[in-house]
Automatic annotation (TrEMBL):
Species, as recorded: Maribellus luteus
This protein's name: Pyridoxamine 5'-phosphate oxidase family protein
Entry-linked PANTHER family: 5-NITROIMIDAZOLE ANTIBIOTICS RESISTANCE PROTEIN, NIMA-FAMILY-RELATED PROTEIN-RELATED, FLAVIN-NUCLEOTIDE-BINDING PROTEIN
InterPro entries assigned: Pyridox_Oxase-rel, Split_barrel_FMN-bd
Gene3D superfamilies: Electron Transport, Fmn-binding Protein, Chain A
């Protein structure tokens, strides 16, 4: 079983859109912190939302550089059932590095909330003014993006 880079942007986006959760990593004062988050993906940005207070919010105010991970798949596979080192979890993983931009404009926050809900439902939603004003919305602008497939079968002329 091999690990392969996923190089086509369309395949990377397929992995991201198939996931329900991303993991947002940040660091302040050399202390790492990671949280599972709901998300929306649009072009070269990831849209996230939260309360406008707390450890995460304070962390990204101090250091807007973040990393996001999506992982799809949890199937256990092995080459030899007797050999522990031959076991792998078959999965695809995307890692993104980027910089946070906080969104304050009401109309843009509303649009971002619509995009967030489209990630999880085909229904259309409406959001009240207090809900939009009180939610924290931020975009992560991509500076680096990479993806890999783990535990894939080796491609050889006889099995391709």
């Amino acid at each position: 079983m091999r690990t392969y880079d996923i190089e086509k942007r369309e395949e990377i986006e397929e992995v991201i859109r198939a996931c329900k959760t991303c993991y947002l990593a940040m660091s302040v004062d050399d202390k790492p912190y990671v949280l599972p988050m709901n998300f929306a993906f649009e072009g070269d940005t990831v849209i996230l939302h939260s309360a406008q207070e707390g450890r995460m919010w304070e962390s990204i105010l101090k250091n807007p550089n973040v990393c996001i991970n999506w992982t799809l798949g949890e199937e256990l596979a092995w080459q030899n059932v007797q050999v522990g080192c031959s076991y792998r979890v078959k999965s695809k993983s995307v890692v993104l590095e980027g910089t946070v931009e906080f969104i304050d404009d009401f109309d843009e926050k509303y649009r971002c909330l619509e995009l967030l809900m489209k990630q999880y439902s085909d229904r259309e939603f409406k959001f009240g003014t207090p809900a939009v004003k009180n939610v924290g919305i931020f975009k992560v602008h991509i500076s680096a993006l990479g993806a890999r497939e783990f535990g894939a079968k080796a491609i050889t002329p006889w099995n391709s």
